[in-house]
Amino acid sequence: MNEVVSFFSTTLRLATPTLLAALGIVFSERAGVVNIGTEGMMLVGALSGVIGSYVTGNVWLGTLIAIVVTVLFAAIFGFFTVVVKADQTVIGTGMNLLASGLTITVNRALFGASTSPPEIDKFVIAPIPGLSKIPVIGPIFFNHHILVYLAFLLVPIAHFVMFRTNVGLKVRSVGENPKACDTVGIRVGMTRFLSILYSGILAGIAGSFVSMGMLSFFTEGMIAGGGFIALAAVVFGNYTPRGVMFSSLVFGASNALMYRLQALATNVPSQFPLMIPYVITIVSLCIVSRRSNKPLGSGKPYIKE
Amino acid sequence: MTTILEMRNITKRFGPVVANDDVSFSVKKGEVHALLGENGAGKSTLMNILFGLYEQTSGEILYKGKTVNIRSPRDAIHLGIGMVHQHFMLIPAHSAIENVVLGYEGNSAVLDLKSAAKRFTEMAERYHMNIDPWELVGNLSVGQQQRLEILKALYRDVETLILDEPTAVLTPQEVDGLFEVIRQLVAEGKTVVFISHKLPEIRAICDRCTILRRGKVAAAGLPISDIKDLNELARLMVGREVELVTEKTPSEPGEVVLNVENLNYTNDKGIHVLKDVNFDVRAGEIVGICGVDGNGQSELIKCLTGLLHATSGKIELMGNDITACTPKQVLKQGIGHIPEDRHAMGMVGQMNLRENISMVDSRDEPYSSHGFMHWRWIDDHSRNLIDKFSVKTPSIMEKAINLSGGNQQKLVVGRELSRKANLLIAVHPSRGLDIGATKYIQSQIVEARDRGVAVLMVSTELDEILEIPDRVLVIYSGRILACLDQCDCTRSGLGLLMAGIEDGEEDRPA
After folding, report:
1. Which residues face A125 on adjacent strands?
2. Contacts of B107 in chain A (CB under 8 A)
3. What is the pTM for the complete model shown?
4. What DSSP line would sit under A34-98, residue for residue?
5. pLDDT tens string B230-255
6. Helix (H, G, I), strand (E, B) or coil at B240
7. Pairing status of strand B320-321 against strand B312-317
8. Which of these, A13, A35, A49, A37, lies nearest to A207 by C-alpha position?
9. Would you say A243 and A236 are in contact if contact means Cβ atoms under 8 Å apart?
10. Which domain, by its residues, includes A107?
11. Which of A183, A292, A305 would you mutate first to test chain B, the one with the most B CBs within 10 A?
């Protein structure tokens, strides 16, 4: 029983960074921007959060600093893709390479390459009083970091914003047919730029959670494909916040399974469970693709004639 | 009547190209003003300037007597100017009402689509344009989409409505419905700018017209009643006399070249697109297929040319079964194909003219042998071809994309006609072309017929259908509803058949 409880609890925790980043990407994707640079943004968020927490001594101030820095980083991506109208894939890949080198350099310059990492303030488990005492349910759902709760609470909010509000309609429309939006007076570039910044905010938080919630310091390349998994989660989740939550949980569960199998030291090589989320993605995309919500204008810069 | 809109000395340059050259345009309140001209005369450019999509290089715009600076559609909408674009500005994945409220300035942060739908429906009923506000736009017919576009503008309380070639996509009955709406709008004191090049329509609905020719004003504020006939209009638009009737003798049909039997096609979404299609085309005759876009014409032609494979039925060309042939095999059998979309299927824009000309037969003598291209022969052939079909180009090394639409079409038509084909399939051969180019291409098709080529022509233009083919098939919802001799065709009869009404019953869709 304990095994099962621990498995589900781990699933939620491991799903959180994917879910956070994906809830940002789902908006930029809907606006027509394929944010390949999420990986780099998360990496920048992970390091700047650690630096912020180290300097201020407070994990929340650290996260705030991570958000600010990541948004600035996202603004570079936004500038090149929306203002300069360069190819999103090329710029995104460039941002990832830049983030990878930049975080290594800054990390070594500030903390040294070989010394043991200093203690920083990090996210702690915050059991919800009362609820966390319920057997089975409590430890699975109500015994987590605050960011885990926040990430899942954000799902219905994101759904509401995307499908019920004026801003949501604009974002969805800009990705489908930017020219039509232009003719009704919507500022296409601004809408896309802001949705990139928004995905930057969430990528920053997601990065902070990886470095200060799941681990307790920055290590080089620690996102290890997490940004790309979030991108895949958005496609797999068919571009809706609810779907994104589902796919993040699938990724979280397969990661949890991988750790379990490693711990059990069975004969199954750990690489196999690691493959599960990707295999599931490929198979389900083949099934889902015909009814895809992928925006028509996805990945194409909007150039006025 | 007071002048509501005045555009003074508008000049618009795109790099070295002058699209509008010192154009002045004035519209009175409450009139329907036609803006006429050939393709590329600068009509849409001028209207896009008015609507804020382009910015003029020089010149000024006065609206209700005040100089206005329209820098975006937002400014135009604020002034009360709305535009229905030729290519609809709708989002197929969203519902009708979402499309209507998109970008509307009166929206609250949390959308109240229910009350918006109520207002929309009231308005739609007032103009007899019933559209379900909750239907996805992708499921609406073209005519409904146009009505939605008009309602979208009216929802923003526009006083001046620009309609850019609104009738191009409609059946004759839908055109009548549109005119009813326009009359109602004018009766309410609204002003309509109507872009078109069809005289009967302009006669029916417009008060005055302004004619553009090669970016300049050829006639300004001319009352429609002053234009005597189509010839005079064509002369004003083109700037010279244009032969409007394509010379044609009665056909002398020979043996059957193409025979289609019980053809059925079901697409990958499971929709039964073609239903038991039967017809034949003989040597030396032109068979026209008329119908509103999207009734199976595309699929039929793709089945004939091997781009799609029929689900059941048989296609015979000169007695050979070609039902399962690939496009390459079909072309080898002697089919010339002028495809519906020259950019997507007829040519490669980034390649030059001689490459485009040699593309179809590049594997064969005399274009090449043993895998090597015979460029010298191709160059001679290409020069002859562009000369014969009067393709205007600086040289055969010019990229196809740099040619105007009419010249691109002449290039494709020329290439297909010069391949010794038994059957010529021409899909929308004159779509998007001006009067001069249209007449030229039509005469070439008739000439091919007179040489004994069997011609299958698809068109949505009634004028073309009434003039060029010897026999007319009407296609509706994947079925051939009627096969008529040309002399039995009337505009209204074809119009009803195109709307799927077989016995002249009037049950027009709302």
Report:
1. A145
2. 166
3. 0.80
4. --TTHHHHHHHHHHHHHHHHHHHS-HHHHHHHHHHHHHHHHHHHHIIIIIS---HHHHHHHHHHH
5. 788 888 887 877 777 777 888 888 99
6. coil
7. antiparallel
8. A49
9. yes
10. 2-223
11. A183
Chain A residues whose C-beta sits inside 8 Å of any chain B C-beta: 164-167, 169-170, 172-173, 176-177, 179-186, 293, 295-296, 304-305
Instruction: State residue B165's pLDDT score.
Output: 85
DSSP reduced 3-state for A297: coil
Provide the shortest C-alpha distance from residue A174 to chain B (in Å). 10
What average pLDDT does the segment A157-171 reach? 96
- Rounded to an integer, what distance in angstroms lies between the CA atom of residue B416 and that of residue B441? 12
Would A193 be classed as within a structural domain?
A: yes
Given a cut of 70, whether residue B506 has pLDDT beyond it is: no
The whole-number average pLDDT for the span B178-204 is 89
Cα B437 from Cα B258, distance rounded (Å): 28
Q: Give the model confidence (pLDDT) of B71-89 as tens digits.
A: 999 999 999 999 999 888 9
Any domain includes A94: yes
Structural domains counted in chain A: 1
Residues of chain B whose beta carbon is less than 8 angstroms from a beta carbon of chain A are 51, 53-54, 72-74, 77, 83, 85, 89-94, 98, 101-105, 107-111, 152
| Cα distances (angstroms) measured from residue B202 to each of B164, B236, B375 | 13, 14, 49
Residue A185 clears pLDDT 50, i.e. is over it? yes
Q: What share of chain B is helix, strand, coil (3-state, %, to 5)?
A: 35, 25, 40
Place of tokens 């199954």: A268
Phi, psi of B494 (to 5 degrees): -65, -40
- Residue A293: count of CB within 10 angstroms of its CB: 18
Determine the distance from the C-alpha atom of residue A289 to the mean position of all C-alpha atoms in its chain, rounded to a whole number: 22
Domain assignment present for A275? no
Is the peptide bond prior to B366 cis by the omega test (within 30 degrees of 0)?
Answer: yes
**Which tens digits make up the pLDDT trace of A14-67?**
999 999 999 999 999 999 999 999 999 999 999 999 999 999 999 999 999 999
Measured between its terminal Cα atoms, the distance across chain A in Å is: 64
Q: Is residue A242 included in any domain, yes or no?
A: no
Does residue A262 carry a pLDDT above 50? Answer: yes
ipTM of the complex: 0.87
Closest CA to A171 of A240, A232, A231: A240
Partners of B210 in the beta sheet?
B35
According to the model, what pLDDT value does residue A288 have?
63
Classify residue B317 by burial, with Cβ atoms within 10 Å: 0-12, 13-18, 19+. buried
Mapping DSSP onto H, E and C, the string for B261-283 reads: EEEEEECCCCCEEEEEEEEEEEC
Rounded Cα distance, B407 and B412, in Å: 9
Q: What own/partner pairs with CB < 8 Å and gap ≥ 24 does B216-219 have?
A: B216/B21, B216/B22, B216/B23, B217/B22, B217/B23, B217/B24, B217/B25, B218/B37
- Average predicted confidence (pLDDT) for chain A: 90
Categorize the per-residue pLDDT at B509 as very low, low, confident or very high, splitting at 50, 70 and 90.
very low
Structure tokens at B413: 């038509």
Cβ contacts of residue B202 below 8 Å, gap of 6+? B34, B36, B194, B196, B209, B224, B233
